[in-house]
């Protein structure tokens, strides 16, 4: 099977970590690198979490450090304890002995895009800062990226404010740059990720694998269950769903719309505007369109996770 070359760009917190684990083991992917960005927690944590996780599972995948703050704003984090103090809930991994990739996230993205000659898919699951900076620094990137499948935004509502999802709210300027870059985009927003709920039987399955990967996934899910029982967010696989869609597009139903991100609104910062009608555009204009996820096949999504992480059993033999 020909593998899809991907880069995951992330602000590794709890569900990011599960998404990375799935991508590491998924037979559909050639995971070229992982780039880090500030988001759920500060960059020093998102970067170290990523490196610790990848090395703990025995992979030598490149981990490149990216932007410590949004393009125009001060450092912004989620502002709550959704992911714990350092991003991994109550999970503590051994500090990795290796080092980060010598190139920055931006340099790594263009390096791999050139090497893959137009076949590279980017999967940003945190604020879009690194991707926007890479586009501005290397305009050729617009012709070298096959697709950007990102977790962020929402057709309606939000989880940071009443109208904005966190990743979009954290760096709206970056998201707007990417959406209007001409690179094909697919938005996996809250409308579908809030349906990607994991249950106790899922945690039991992963723990039953008897592998490091399975144990980490189960422990992260247990943290999420405790969080939910305390009246906070459920065990939602926001980021894992974006990764899954890269492997199996039919996991979600999509429709094409013009999408942009509000940057200047006092109360609407980070709102992803999904144009149902074209009244903002002059007759004959053809704005860049984005595939927007509308619904998901939850059993099919869970099958992807299980069918990926089951390969961690093979690595222990």
UniProtKB/TrEMBL annotation:
<dbReference type="Pfam" id="PF01156">
    <property type="entry name" value="IU_nuc_hydro"/>
</dbReference>
<dbReference type="GO" id="GO:0006152">
    <property type="term" value="P:purine nucleoside catabolic process"/>
</dbReference>
<dbReference type="GO" id="GO:0008477">
    <property type="term" value="F:purine nucleosidase activity"/>
</dbReference>
<feature type="domain" description="Inosine/uridine-preferring nucleoside hydrolase">
    <location>
        <begin position="6"/>
        <end position="303"/>
    </location>
</feature>
<dbReference type="GO" id="GO:0005829">
    <property type="term" value="C:cytosol"/>
</dbReference>
<keyword id="KW-0326">Glycosidase</keyword>
<dbReference type="InterPro" id="IPR036452">
    <property type="entry name" value="Ribo_hydro-like"/>
</dbReference>
<dbReference type="InterPro" id="IPR023186">
    <property type="entry name" value="IUNH"/>
</dbReference>
<dbReference type="InterPro" id="IPR001910">
    <property type="entry name" value="Inosine/uridine_hydrolase_dom"/>
</dbReference>
<dbReference type="InterPro" id="IPR015910">
    <property type="entry name" value="I/U_nuclsd_hydro_CS"/>
</dbReference>
<protein>
    <submittedName>
        <fullName>Pyrimidine-specific ribonucleoside hydrolase</fullName>
    </submittedName>
</protein>
<dbReference type="GO" id="GO:0045437">
    <property type="term" value="F:uridine nucleosidase activity"/>
</dbReference>
<keyword id="KW-0378">Hydrolase</keyword>
